[in-house]
Fold:
Amino acid sequence: MRRSNAAASSLLAGLVALALGGCPPGTPGPETPGTDAAAGVTDAPSSTDAGDVLGPPWRLVWQDEFDGTAGARPDPGKWKHDVGGDGWGNGQLEFDTDRTENAALDGQGNLAIVARREAFSGRAYTSARLNSAGRFERAYGRFEARIKLPRGRGIWPAFWMLGADIANAGWPACGEIDVMEYRGQLLRNVRGSLHGPGHSGGANHGREIDAGMDLSQGFHTFIVEWDPGRVVWKVDDDVYFTATPADLPGGADWVYDHAFFLILNVAVGGYYVGNPDGSTVFPQTMLVDHVRVYERIP
Structure:
C-alpha cells in the first residue's frame, strides 16, 4: 500500500507518505500490475482452523489476537498510530486519527478500523492506520492477518510492511511488501506486490488476482511467506504469486533482506482506487481477527 507520518512516529513523514501508496505526490492513475512469476513453493504448512497455531515448519514468534473489551484501544505495546491527512503521497482523502472511533477492539476478538464520512481537520473522511515500527520489526518468516474486508467504491484497505530503515534509507530504497491490497469496488480481487528501487509506484512488481469470491463477505487470511531471495503470497493458504530477485526488472535492486514493520489501514480514495461516489456507504469497517508472525523451524 504505502505510508507513515512523522507526527505519529519517528519515521520521516514525507518518505512514509510516498511509501503509502507507492506513488509519489502528483503521480496519476492506479498502479500497474507487475510481471507474474512462477508460483511454486515447497514445504508449505497445511491449512488450519482460524484459532489454531501452525505446526512445523513454522513456529509462532509474535501475535495479536485483539482480545479485549469493546471500545478499548489496540495494544500500545504492539501498535502505534500514523496521524495525518496530507494524502500520504497517494491522493487519499481521509484524515487518519488516533481516536477509538476509527480504531478500537470490538469485544468479539477483532480490531475494527473504521472509515467514516465526517468533516475532520479539513478532510471529509476519517480512518486509521496502525504500524508496529519500533515495537515489532523482523526479517523473514510467515506474516498473516485474518481479515474481513470493507467494501465500496473508493475504499482501500491494506495489510503491508515497510523496511525498518526507512528513516535513513528513504522510500523506496527501504523496500515495501504489500501483503494485501483491496479495491472496494472490485470485490473479488486482491493484490500483492513489492516496491523497491527500479520497481516502485505504478511500476511495482506484483500481481492482482480474481479470488473467485466476494472477499468482503467473510474472513480470509492474507499471507506472505518470506525467505532470503523469495517472497510468496497466499490467500487462505492458496499460493497466487511468487517473487525472486531474478523476476525484477533489469537493474532493479532486491531490498528484502532486512527487518520490516507491519501496517494495517483503511484509506479512502487515492490513485489506486479512485474516489468514493454516491454508491459508497459509510461507515466502512475492516475487522482484523488476528495478526501472526512465524519463523521457520531450522
Notes: The chain has one domain: 13-22+54-296. Residues 60 and 294 are 4 Å apart (CA to CA). The longest strand covers residues 284-296.
